[in-house]
What does this fold into?
Amino acid sequence: MSTRTRYREDVEKAYEIQSKAGIEGALRGTAVGTGLAVLAHYTWPLFRRQPLALKAFLISGFAISGLVFSAENALMVHEAARRREENIIRREARLDLARQGLVGTETEIAKWKAARLGENSSPANNTDHDC
It folds into this structure.
């Protein structure tokens, strides 16, 4: 699998995570906004006299805020996890290359990753060793 293909898959995965979290956040924000609007309508006479358009605007503000904050938070968490995984792989590559007497440059790490991915995808390594 090429680097470009892996990059595209990572982008698609991040997009899916962000859009799912955005939808959930928007629904949560809409529910909170609607609940607060209903509560304010029945408890505050000044709010009761406001036009429906203003109330809908306030609810949509809650929905949009929920969408944006949830999607951004989910993307930040995903990116942090990917960074952690990449750092672990790079550390392992540098250690393995150092054992071989090579300097862990970007080119050497990329070659190590390619060899490692080729090694992991071979049918001989896909056997289960559960004893």
